[in-house]
Amino acid sequence: MSIFSRKKFDKIKREEVVEAIIGLEKQEEDIIASFDESKKKIGELVAKGKRETDRNMQVAYAKKIESIQRENASASKRWQFVNSNLSAMYALKSAMDDREFIANNSKISLNDMLTNPKELEKFLSKTNVKKMQHEDKLAGSLGVIDTVNESYVENEKVYGVSDNMQNILAMFEADKTNEDNMAFAENNKIDEAKEDPISE
User: Cα torsion for 9, 13, 16, 21, to the nearest 10°?
Assistant: First the structure.
């Protein structure tokens, strides 16, 4: 039985809303997957059209692309419809969760204490005073730590990089660049050989 056929929202169960959301999310996933598939097909057809020299075949590819684009436009409207339904369902679920949250929290006995503003203010003020006292002590400790750390200077013999080490590091980088260039040139040769094989 559809939840939309019920007259009173109070009768709607949260499980029904969750099931509706799961169903709509599945529809949304399917539509998005169809977009990805259409994008792939269009890319393949464009590539074929660019390689094709026959005008009639190019027109055929173009018509196929146009047909897929029209289907995508329809799918886009379906996606927007599903997305709007999802937004409504999320809002309904959120309202139901809020209702349950409020109902559960109203049963807490401590809530009665919050109805006395003067006592609450006194408690919070006392707590804030203690908090500030502890924060001041902590700030003082942090200040001492910062002062000591700022006065510390690293020993260059331990942590520094000598000129010779800089030269070695530069050599590593140069070798890496040369290897990359050689690999790139080799790959280009292989690609060129594939595109233009020499007949024996």
Answer: 70
Average pLDDT over residues 147-158: 83
Contact 43, 29 (CB under 8 A): no
Q: Quick one: which of 123, 92, 104, 81 has its CA closest to 15?
A: 92
Distance (Å, rounded) from C-alpha 126 to C-alpha 119? 11
Cα(14)–Cα(96) distance, integer angstroms: 7
Confidence label for 9 from pLDDT (cuts 50, 70 and 90): confident
Distances (CA, A) of 76 to 43, 98, 163: 19, 33, 62
Q: How confident is the model at residue 102, as a pLDDT?
A: 81
From 75, 66, 92, select the one nearest 27 (Cα to Cα): 75
CA angle, corner 98, sides to 94 and 104, nearest 5? Answer: 145
Token pair listed for 159 = 């942590």
Collect all residues with Cβ–Cβ distance below 8 Å to 92 and sequence separation of at least 6.
Answer: 9, 12, 17
Residue 23 to residue 86: CA distance in whole angstroms: 10
Write phi, then psi, for 75 (nearest 5 degrees).
Answer: -65, -35
